[in-house]
Amino acid sequence: MAKKVALVFGGRSLESDISVITAMQTLAALKETEFIVEPVYLTEGGFYMRGVDDIAAFTPFERDKHLRVILADGVFLSVRRGKLRREFRPDVALICCHGGEGENGVLQGLLEFNGVPYTSAGVTASAVCMDKAASKCVFEQMLLNVLPYVTVRSSDALFDPYAVTLVCERTLDYPVIVKPASQGSSIGISAAHDREELAEALAVAARFDDKLVVEEKLTDFVEVNCAAYARGGEVIVSETERPLSAGELLTFEDKYVSGGKMSGGGREMPAPVGDELNALVRTLTERIYRTMELKGVVRVDFLVDRVREKVYINEVNTVPGSMAFYLFEPAGKSFSEVICDIVEDAAERGAARRARPAYSSPVLSFYGRGTHGGKCAP
Question: Which of 70, 99, 166, 341 could form a cystine bridge with 15, CB 3.0-4.6 A?
Fold first, then answer.
């Protein structure tokens, strides 16, 4: 029997529009499979179905034209004339959300509560990878190379930017990069070469997050990305890429606007850092995937210092744009094959979880009989 797949995308995130594009690309790839697919759009705390299978439906999105549903007991339900109506029971949720509640573990927790297997990292790994400060702590514990950094509260940066810049200067050397801790797609990120620019960069980033990361910026480096996913215990690692930027930093426009397509300003594959460093990047990608117990397609972003030929871990994207399908094409893996693999892997994990033995505790019946006067022992 064909598996039923809920293609979940959107969410309260600055990257919601990018999520729509990823979902439409994925939906097109799913047409080459035998899955029964139901697109489900997440916005402002609500799920919507029907007519959310075309980008035109989101320019702008009009809720009244679509069916609002809730997720309960593993089923998407609508409310019609005061009665609940079953709309769709997914076997697997294929997550195409970028940022916010769709990638930070909130959606993952909701799906787990409902017993729906899903194609992304679990609650803990999703939350950690979404938080750049928290993930750096994990990377350091893994003895990975991490650029020197400082974590800053946005409230402190806005209240006394001079004091915050002094703290940063005691630890870091210019130039530095200021990032919102839990945003993606280069939103709110800027470089600073002196105290004045740092104060301005802090003010910009503080608009997008409660917590900021300030880290030293390499001056002669190459950004190198590599993706991976698991199928049946095997981790499949992609080719490497160098995303191209028009300026000092890879911007939102570089990624999504240049050329009017998701490929943005383009990429070089494999990354032009030599066979040895590319092999190291691929090895580190698999190690990170296994150690952090990641699931689904993940893209790991690195920075390669050309001068010292040193590889630094930058961040982990647990739901990458376009599902990073293009990185697997050199290995002969089509978009639809990658999607099939992660859906089947999620279904198998769900089946294994359901097969775990249940434990029946006698505690409540014991106290319910009035033993100890119906009171718990101290």
Answer: 99
Q: Sign of torsion, CA 65 71 77 82?
A: negative
Closest CA to 301 of 193, 139, 152, 96: 139
Q: Are 145 and 312 in contact (CB under 8 A)?
A: yes
**Residue 366 confidence (pLDDT):** 82
Beta bridge partners of 62: none
Contact 370, 364 (CB under 8 A): no
Region label for 138, one of left (φ > 0), alpha (ψ between -120 and 50) or beta (otherwise):
alpha
Task: For 220-247, give the DSSP string.
Answer: SEEEEEEEEEEETTEEEEEEEEEE--SS
Give me the pLDDT at residue 101, please.
92
What's the chain's average pLDDT? 91
Residue 105 gets which letter from DSSP? S
Share of the chain above pLDDT 70, in %: 92
Token output for 347: 């279904």
CA dihedral for 113, 322, 12, 64, sign (positive or negative): negative
Q: Which amino acid is at 7?
A: L
Residue 320 pLDDT > 70: yes
Domains of the chain: 4-118 (3.40.50.20), 148-216 (3.30.1490.20), 220-348 (3.30.470.20)
Q: Which of 49, 43, 45 has the alpha carbon at shortest distance from 7?
A: 49
Which two structure tokens, joined as six digits, stand for 156?
């402190």
Report whether pLDDT(372) > 60: no
CA 285 to each of CA 33, 54, 99, 291: distance values in angstroms, whole numbers, following the listed order? 28, 34, 21, 10
Take residue 240 and report the two structure tokens written for it.
Answer: 């490497």
Nearby residues of 164 by Cβ (< 8 Å), 6 or more positions away: 152, 156, 157, 202
Please give the structure tokens belonging to residue 283. 């090895």
Find the DSSP H helices in the chain.
Answer: 16-30, 106-113, 123-130, 132-141, 154-159, 161-171, 195-206, 252-256, 275-291, 335-354, 363-368
What are the pLDDT digits (tens) for 226-261? Answer: 999 999 889 999 999 999 875 555 554 545 555 444
pLDDT of residue 184: 65
Provide the pLDDT for residue 375: 60
Asked if 206 and 159 count as a contact pair (C-beta separation under 8 A), the reply is no
